[in-house]
Amino acid sequence: MRTRSPRGGALARRSDFLLDTCVGLALLTACGAAQASSVGGSATLTTDYVWRGTSQTQGDPAVQAGASIASDAGLYASVWGSNVEFPGTGANTEFDFTVGWSGAIANDWAADVNVLHYRYPSTDVDLNWTELNGKLTYADRYWLAVGWSPEALGADGDGIYSQAGVRWPVGETVALELAAGHYALGDAYDDSYWHGQASATWTFKAPFQLRVTAHATDSSAERLFGESVAGNRIEAALQASF
Question: How confident is the model at residue 186 (pLDDT cuts 50, 70, 90)?
Answer without folding.
Answer: very high
